[in-house]
Specification:
Function: Cell wall formation.
Shape: globular
Helix content: 25-40%
Strand content: 25-35%
Order of helices and strands: EHEEEEEEHHHEEHEEHEEEHEHEEHH
Subcellular location: Cytoplasm
Number of helices: 10
Keywords: ATP-binding, Cell shape, Cell wall biogenesis/degradation, Cytoplasm, Ligase, Magnesium, Manganese, Metal-binding, Nucleotide-binding, Peptidoglycan synthesis
Catalytic activity: 2 D-alanine + ATP = D-alanyl-D-alanine + ADP + phosphate + H(+)
GO biological process, one term: regulation of cell shape
Largest sheet: 6 strands, mixed
CATH superfamily of the largest domain: ATP-grasp fold, B domain
Structural class: alpha+beta
CATH class of the largest domain: Alpha Beta
């Protein structure tokens, strides 16, 4: 059987490149070696190269995204994209693959770039049945008196987050006007667009959704119980800071309801590959509130998607095969 050549792209331009390398190591370990020949490709702002096991780095030819190894030019049948943040998750890199006609495992350029913008994404999913969106505002500049202005529209506590940031860096929760001013300063250091939204008091969940054989599959939700105020960078990546339960504690009716919502969100945003939607189940009302969607979710052994795949009795090897085969579907 002729093995398909897969470029496993990792790295990226942001602090999340560390997480990307961890995800890539897990993907590489579990990919079906009988079917695929895997080429690790590192993408950074100042370099893009193929990394061999012996540490040799071969630069990538950007004219056709090929590498020349042992005097032989290697062109790829497809790309397994595991770059969190820019340029893998924000549409830049996949736009380039589109121009070259190389298939890839993640969302297209339009969906990738829109979903990196939390405020735009919320506008798109707002009309979905049974899905609620917290009251929010999108800010384009920081100025004196901004906190007071916002408090005319929104009620405390308020979440403040950089609009395009991943991994919750620069995010904070403000319980007073003074804290809100500090939170805005912090977020504007990370991004020139900032989103503020009312805090929804509820249980937090995250759910994986992917397409295989042209059919949308919704994985079981993971419930996130954080000892921190919210699921920030430390809670995400430091063991023991948060507890994760997969499948999360939901009654049958809610499981079915969230499955329909997740499928609809995937369709409405025209997603491809595996994505992860974070949501709240509000305490008082039992309503589902959309938090955000990740189009290149982590794939480390302890990542939420990996836990959810294992919870349905599937191996990561089969899961990755389904994601790769879907590229050519």
């Amino acid at each position: 059987m002729n093995k398909k050549k897969i470029a496993l792209v990792m790295g990226g331009y942001t602090g999340e490149s560390v997480v990307s390398l961890k995800s890539a190591a897990v993907v590489a370990q579990h990919l079906d070696k009988e079917r695929y020949e895997v080429f690790p490709i590192h993408v950074y702002q100042d370099s893009c190269y193929h990394l061999e096991a012996n540490g040799n780095k071969t630069p990538v030819d950007f004219n056709d995204f090929s590498v020349t190894l042992v005097g032989k030019r290697v062109k790829f049948d497809g790309v397994f994209n595991i770059i969190h943040g820019s340029p893998g998750e924000d549409g830049k890199l996949v736009g380039y693959f589109d121009m070259l006609g190389i298939p890839y495992t993640t969302c297209d350029a339009l969906t990738s770039s829109i979903t990196m913008n939390k405020a735009y994404t919320k506008k798109i999913v707002e009309g979905i049945a049974d899905l609620h969106v917290a009251k929010s505002a999108q800010l384009f500049e920081n100025k004196a008196g901004l906190a007071e202005e916002l408090l005319d529209e929104l009620s405390l506590p308020i979440f403040v987050k950089p609009n395009n940031g991943g991994s919750s860096i620069g995010m904070s929760k403000a319980k007073s006007a003074e804290e809100l001013t500090m939170a805005l300063d912090l977020a504007f250091k990370e991004d020139d667009q900032v989103m503020v939204e009312e805090f929804v008091s509820g249980r937090e969940f995250s759910i994986g959704i992917y397409k295989s054989n042209g059919k949308i599959t919704v994985l079981p939700s993971t419930e996130i119980i954080s000892s921190k105020e919210f699921f920030d960078f430390e809670a995400k990546y430091k063991p023991g800071v948060s507890e994760e339960i997969t499948p999360g504690r939901l009654d049958e009716r809610d499981v079915e309801k969230v499955r329909k919502i997740a499928e609809k969100v995937y369709q409405t945003l025209n997603c491809k590959g595996a994505v992860r939607m974070d949501y709240f189940l509000e305490m008082q009302t039992g309503d589902f509130y959309f938090i955000e969607i990740n189009t290149v979710p982590g794939q480390t052994e302890t990542s939420l998607i990996s836990q959810q795949v294992k919870a349905v009795g599937m191996t990561l090897k089969d899961f990755y095969t389904e994601l790769i085969e879907e590229m050519w579907h």
